[in-house]
Amino acid sequence: MINFSVNGKPQQVDVEPSMPLLWVLRDTLGLTGSKFGCGMAQCGACTVHIDGQPVRSCVMPISAVAGKQITTIEGLSVSGDHPVQKAWIEHNVPQCGYCQSGQIMSAVALLSQNASPSDEDIDNYMQGNICRCGTYPRIKAAIKSVAKGVDLAKNVGDDA
Fold it and tell me: Which domains does the chain have, with CATH numbers?
């Protein structure tokens, strides 16, 4: 049995210790917000936070998270009103949406480490998250709006 916490709730799973965290989240716990993209920690679609740090869950063995706190996109905000989630909506970031949970989790981690990132900081930090639709300018605009503390409700319809 492996004990850990997901989105503030204690969890106990009886799975192979080498099973990737992503599969435990999706298949065992039913938390499907984190996506499988590449299986090699290259695309970022599976990004979750472990003890506040962004981690690619597709290559993280469940045994490595024993006793740790996991936050998934589902746990970021119960009602979907985290400032980064709101910025994503206001800047029309998603197209296909597949990469968005990983993009959002990475953006939250960036802003928790650097509340006022430069364009270069954003580019460097987010470069490991691939968006097949190419919404990178919108992603950057959304991150910058949160960093600037913009009242997102006042910016509906504005171009970034």
Answer: 2-76 (3.10.20.30), 83-151 (1.10.150.120)
